Amino acid sequence: MRTLHRQSVRRGRAADVRLTTEIRLNAIVLPREPSGRTLRWLWLSLFVIVVDQATKRAILAAFRPGEDLPLTSFASLVLAFNKGAAFSFLAGEDGWQRWLFAVIAVAACAAMAWLLRRGGSALFCAGLALIIGGALGNLYDRLVLGHVVDFLLVHYRDWYFPAFNVADSAITIGAGALIVDSFVDRRSSVARQPKA
């Protein structure tokens, strides 16, 4: 190591350790610029939000609450409002759940955006982007309307699946993509391990 003009040289292990620690801290603390790959996946999130909000506005304009339009023998369009979470969890509460679910959505989106920034396979990144878009689409409804607008209803005879929307579908498909990616990643890492 060369000394700078008129500075003494510190010898020993402490100087090396301090220098190494500073480099590691800078690598963690300094933000990276979003890459083009990261931004590409955020466009997918934005697409989900736009489609979700457009379909919800169309249903709100065309239907009254509870009104339905059969599409097939097993699917209908219906206008339903959900103040709870998935499958109307906590829907009967007095309103505090709106803010709880809003905080959870923001925290989850921040965590997934961080994971998206780290990168990964295309399936992994697409899954994260779909979940972010779906969560933000439903978050908008929660904050602006006080409830989530659901309009897709799947049923068979006397059995009805809870109504859902485009954002819910994106979240479900995104979660499925993450699950599939975890198996694909595990299988490829097992194949790379040397046989004993």
Q: What does this protein look like?
A:
- By secondary structure, this protein is an alpha+beta fold.
- The protein has one domain (35-192).
- 60% of the residues lie in helices and 11% in strands.
- The chain has five helices and four strands.
- The chain has helices spanning 13-29, 36-62, 96-118, 122-145, 166-192; strands at 68-70, 75-82, 148-156, 159-160.
- A four-stranded antiparallel sheet has the order 1-2-3-4.
- Helix 4 (122-145) runs antiparallel to helix 5 (166-192).
- The longest helix has 27 residues, at 36-62.
Question: How do the helices and strands line up, and which of them pair or pack?
Answer:
Layout: H1 13-29, H2 36-62, E1 68-70, E2 75-82, H3 96-118, H4 122-145, E3 148-156, E4 159-160, H5 166-192
Antiparallel strand pairs: 1-2, 2-3, 3-4
